[in-house]
């Protein structure tokens, strides 16, 4: 079994579909994990969510999405009227307009209640319930998978939800040495330089593996295949790239690969 893990999608439906088409995934055997932040910023958020929901329905035990801080902000807006999701830096204006057909404009305090009512009426209930169902972490034989990071190297089950969704902890990025942990949330260009060198837009340092390769017009959407450490990338202009990560691999990843190899059956004649 292989695990294919995809970084923050942010509504990039075409790039996500390119990734799904290019990876050598056996839908009946291999695991597909998405690290959250499926929504906001991109040009087709509703279509992206619909495609991911369909993947879940087709193979419910072989496809898993995590909840990202963007899904959490949306839920907080829908459930409680919390307005953080409406901040200009979030990119929620794309999600709002694509679901409602109306621009997101705030001119007075009353607009917050109006926007909440309009959005709640427009978004398919199945999409909201899908966001509610998303777990905060996943674990398999190869790695831990979280949206943002771990607190002081603790297992995700012992890490507060706020940390799993929001943290940007330099100590985790630089010094985490436990079971390999694949995360998104912080774009790789914002992570420490040493872990980015020669990594084709992702980040690897000790046991921390960051695969949010950013969101600008030149940023790829990235997918990492474990345990082989193959990297698949789809770009906004339509081109794709595949890399086999072998140089300067940290010992935790090499140990993971040795462990897998030791448990594979012999193939001699």
Short key terms for the protein model shown above:
5-stranded mixed β-sheet; alpha/beta; 2 domains; 269 residues; 9 helices; 34% helix; globular; Purple Acid Phosphatase, chain A, domain 2
Structure report:
There is one protein chain. The chain is α/β, with parallel strands linked by helices. It has 2 domains: 3-68 and 134-262, Purple Acid Phosphatase, chain A, domain 2 (4-Layer Sandwich), CATH 3.60.21; 69-133, no CATH class. Helix content is 34%, strand content 16%. The protein contains 9 helices and 11 strands. It has helices at 13-22, 45-58, 69-80, 92-100, 109-122, 125-133, 161-166, 170-175, 251-262, and strands spanning 3-6, 31-34, 63-65, 137-139, 144-146, 181-183, 203-205, 208-210, 221-226, 230-234, 240-244. It has a 6-stranded mixed sheet. Strand 9 (221-226) and strand 10 form a beta hairpin. The protein is globular.
Give the helix/strand class: alpha/beta
Distance between the termini: 23 Å
Please count the beta strands (DSSP E, at least 2 residues each).
11
Oligomeric state of the chains?
single chain
CATH class of the largest domain: Alpha Beta
State the major sheet.
6 strands, mixed
């Amino acid at each position: 079994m292989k695990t294919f893990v995809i970084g923050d999608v942010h509504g990039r439906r075409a790039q996500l579909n390119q990734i799904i088409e290019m990876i050598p995934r056996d839908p009946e055997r291999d695991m597909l994990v998405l690290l959250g932040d499926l929504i906001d910023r991109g040009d087709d958020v509703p279509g992206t969510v619909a495609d991911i929901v369909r993947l879940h329905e087709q193979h419910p035990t072989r496809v898993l999405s995590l909840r990202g801080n963007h899904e959490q902000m949306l839920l907080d807006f829908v459930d409680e009227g919390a307005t953080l999701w409406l901040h200009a830096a979030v990119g929620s204006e794309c999600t709002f307009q694509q679901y409602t057909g109306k621009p997101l404009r705030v001119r007075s305090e009353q607009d917050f209640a109006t926007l909440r009512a309009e959005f709640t009426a427009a978004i398919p209930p199945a999409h909201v319930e899908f966001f509610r169902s998303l777990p905060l972490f996943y674990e398999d034989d190869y790695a831990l998978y979280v949206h943002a990071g771990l607190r002081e190297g603790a297992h995700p089950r012992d890490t507060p939800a706020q940390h799993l969704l929001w943290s940007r902890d330099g100590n985790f990025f630089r010094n985490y040495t436990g079971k390999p942990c694949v995360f998104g949330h912080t774009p790789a260009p914002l992570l420490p330089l040493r872990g980015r060198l020669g990594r084709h837009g992702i980040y690897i340092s000790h046991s921390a593996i960051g695969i949010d390769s950013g969101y600008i017009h030149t940023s790829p959407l990235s997918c990492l295949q474990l345990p082989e450490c193959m990297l698949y990338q789809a770009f906004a202009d339509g081109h794709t790239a595949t890399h086999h990560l072998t140089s300067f691999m940290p010992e935790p990843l090499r140990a993971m690969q040795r462990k897998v190899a030791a448990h594979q059956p012999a193939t001699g004649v």
